[in-house]
């Protein structure tokens, strides 16, 4: 029976790096599939750790029977498992809660996936606003402290530096994007599909720490066998999968491994046929200068001696990255015009440049940045003029012109629904307001009716005229409306309104109703 030594979770650590790098990209369906694959890999790795850790405690207890001096270590074995179990259940409980609250899973093309994998409301609300993320940070530190308490005082400092269960509580303080705390930096506005692998990674850290403590206790009672990694897969972890022409493409190529029952040695890695030096963690660095624009491929090969089969096997994988050129894109979110008096949403992007380094200005109006990275433009007119949005970023500049137009004329409707024509006697008298409706207009705007002239033409009678101010039909116009009888004709003349950005009233024409 093999006894685990401190496990080297190469796959887990680098997958976490890959996850962080992917979040800097425009999140597509393919990337969410990658998040799902990472999460599944972590879950499988956790199951493998559980299986490896399950048999170790009894081996330690049995070995401790060799002498009374070992009893103190045997007594700590069950505590290690309890700490790991409670920590894993706590982390998985938060994960399961977010999945349940967001709607769980659904089957798409025969594949189970999260219904709300793009939802960042549940993660931001629970982990940032409700404080669960900071509570998680404290819980992880607490679990680490409990594990360290099971290590002899003289060994504790050196052991702590090797324990995988840790929280980086310094990087967020140096971030250019001001964050309230570690939880805001780690989970703020992160989609659920990206957060779940992070939680699986924390669970893996707990189980790996459990294995590390068990390894320590095993060494104290004289056990020398170790768990080995004998199931392999080549993995590439690029710093960026999309680079600008002239920049360097850098990636870490390594062999991911899961625990088996013997020792692995002799890892050799090459990329495109060139051998690379392998560090003590089993990883190698490869870089190349980005040349022509387009998708580029590279082949990584790892040769590994498998101590279980006593054979050397090759593991090959082809990866790709994309080379692009810097460019600026400016587009109106709704249409290629700016309307006077309303908020005009604008999207600005500069390929290969962080949003914090992009500067946006506008002539012919004002433009401001929103919290989600988009912009809002407001123009004052006059109609027919042009507004120019200018963008500057390191190594590039760009601009785009937009036509300035006033809000289109609304359609006057009696009661907000009748446009004229034949109408029932009772229905006509019940509609007490003339409302201007902006049909097929995508912006949040409302026009106010300034007034109109109401004319009643009854059979064999002279026309009756009444002026009305505002949208509501009242006063003499209301009295005139109340006289409506079958055969009458009512004309709403000189219907006037004012829309956002208007200096003076605009005339919307007239409506004619034949009373039935």
Describe it for me?
- By secondary structure, this protein is α+β, with helices and mostly antiparallel strands.
- It has twelve helices and 26 strands.
- The strands form seven sheets. Strands 20, 22, 23, 24, 25 and 26 form a six-stranded mixed β-sheet that branches. The chain has a five-stranded mixed β-sheet with strand order 4-10-9-6-7, with no helix packed on it. A four-stranded antiparallel β-sheet has the order 11-13-16-15, with no helix packed on it.
- Helix 1 (10-22) runs antiparallel to helix 2 (29-54).
- The chain starts with 9 loop residues before the first helix and ends with a strand.
- Mean pLDDT is 82; it is low at 1-9 and 258-265.
The domain tally reads 4
Count of discrete alpha- or pi-helical segments spanning 4 or more residues:
12
Gross morphology is elongated
Strand content: 25-35%
| Category by helix and strand content | alpha+beta
Straight-line distance between termini: 96 Å
Largest sheet report: 6 strands, mixed
Q: Look at the structure and give the mean pLDDT.
A: 82
Count of beta strands: 26
Helical proportion, percent range? 25-40%
**Could you tell me the radius of gyration in angstroms?**
35 Å
Q: Poorly predicted ranges (pLDDT <50, ≥5 residues)?
A: 1-9, 258-265
Summed up:
The protein is 33% helix and 33% strand.
Characteristics of this structure?
516 residues, alpha+beta, S-adenosyl-L-methionine-dependent methyltransferases, five-stranded mixed sheet, 12 helices, elongated, disordered N terminus
